[in-house]
Design a protein that fits this description.
The protein is α+β, with helices and mostly antiparallel strands. It has a single domain (5-185), classed as Peptide Deformylase (Alpha-Beta Complex). It has four helices and nine strands; from the N terminus they run E-H-E-E-H-E-E-E-E-E-H-H-E. It has a five-stranded antiparallel sheet, with helices on both faces. It has a two-stranded parallel sheet with strand order 1-9. Strands 5-6 form a two-stranded antiparallel ribbon. A hairpin with a 5-residue loop joins strand 7 (120-126) and strand 8 (132-138). It is globular, with a radius of gyration of 16 Å. This is Peptide deformylase.
Length: 196
């Protein structure tokens, strides 16, 4: 089932999410619904707060980036097969020299800005079968994970922009929260006069 994606301005996007346990109600159904929602919106990642749930879970499928011919073959191959669910994740290490990449977000449609992040991360998490993992990721895979991880920490990519950039996009962000935007997927706007 495709769920509405929560738009910029909703308080759930600024909340630090809580861990869940194995008995979380209808977890398998929720995960399936989140995949449907993400693919319907042509996203490469989706965090639970983006569908209104303040829980520590997100998923990524960066396969569309595998088409980027500027990446080496190894990174393309890694991105192609990286469909993953992260439950109760914890980034334990971020290393390397920060690099910029133009990021967007399903909760903030039509806004893209350069965000600086470290290239290498180590993350502990449970998968959808409650198997524990500690993995290291680099490059675009690490970036997609960092972006989604920020969501469960109550951080949006726009929070990482300079104050000048923030001022420049302030009007756009206000319009998004009021629903004054055309999007191809279902959204829930916190300040809209009526639900869409």
């Amino acid at each position: 089932m495709i769920l509405p994606i929560v738009a910029y301005g909703d308080p759930v996007l600024k909340k630090k999410a809580k861990d869940i346990d194995k008995d979380y109600p209808k977890l398998e159904e929720l995960i399936n619904n989140m995949w449907d929602t993400m693919y319907n919106a042509y996203g490469v990642g989706l965090a639970a707060p983006q569908i209104g749930l303040p829980i520590r879970m997100f998923m990524i499928d960066p396969a569309p980036f595998a088409e980027d011919e500027e990446l080496d073959e190894a990174e393309q191959a890694a991105l192609k097969d990286m469909r993953k669910v992260f439950i109760n994740p914890k980034i334990t290490e971020e290393t390397g020299e920060e690099w910029a990449f133009s990021e967007g977000c399903l909760s903030i449609p039509e806004v893209r800005e350069d965000v600086f992040r470290k290239p290498d991360i180590t993350i502990e998490y449970y998968d959808e079968n409650w198997k524990k993992h500690t993995d290291t990721y680099s490059g675009l895979a690490a970036r997609v994970i960092q972006h989604e991880y920020d969501h469960i920490e109550g951080i949006l990519f726009t929070d990482k922009l300079s104050s000048l950039k923030k001022r420049l996009i302030k009007g756009k962000l206000a319009n998004i929260s009021k629903g004054k935007i055309d999007v191809e997927y279902r959204m829930r706007f916190p300040l809209a006069k009526k639900a869409r």
